[in-house]
Specification:
By secondary structure, this protein is an alpha+beta fold. It contains three helices and five strands; from the N terminus they run βββααββα. Strands 1-2-3-5-4 form a five-stranded antiparallel sheet.
Length: about 160
């Protein structure tokens, strides 16, 4: 296997219902950065395990980074993808560094599991964000009601 380091390999876009657009807020992996792979891949010195750099669709938020880099995330991924222990994940700018793996494992199942993990993580974080926004809306509505009630009470005071 000879790799051209000037190219990246594309991963298929996630399935989306007919006519629906993918959520632009969703964090996805879009490609493997071939230039970031070990130079000796495809030779007799090819390492069994190495770091595979994958490119994110956008900048990662601090909350996403914390969940991605949690050691439990890598452990669950390794179990689901049936890869040996030693998998680790690190975010570097707009790249996910998937350490302790190889392209064969990525292609076999790990890339699919990474995509599923990011969808789940995104759904959870967006759900939390939506709940916080709804609570903030409730507080603002309550404050508007309180201010209106105080103004109405003040308007009832007569200085005859």
């Amino acid at each position: 296997m000879v790799l051209d380091p000037s190219t990246t390999t594309r991963t298929p876009e996630p399935a989306v219902a007919a006519g629906a657009e993918p959520d632009p807020r969703a964090l996805r992996l879009v490609s493997v950065l071939a230039a970031g792979l070990p130079a000796d891949l495809g030779t007799e010195r090819e390492p069994a395990r190495y770091t595979v750099p994958a490119v994110f669709s956008r900048q990662v938020t601090p909350a996403e980074r914390a969940r991605i880099e949690d050691p439990g995330t890598a452990h669950r991924l390794a179990e689901r993808a049936h890869v040996p222990d030693g998998l680790h994940l690190a975010v570097s700018d707009r790249r996910l560094l998937v350490g302790g793996t190889n392209l064969a494992e990525m292609k076999a199942r790990l890339a699919t599991e990474l995509s599923a993990m990011l969808r789940t993580l995104g759904d959870e974080l967006l759900g939390e964000q939506d709940r916080r926004a709804a609570l903030a809306d409730e507080r603002r509505a309550g404050e508007r009601d309180r201010v209106a009630a105080v103004a109405a009470a003040a308007a009832e005071v007569r200085f005859d």
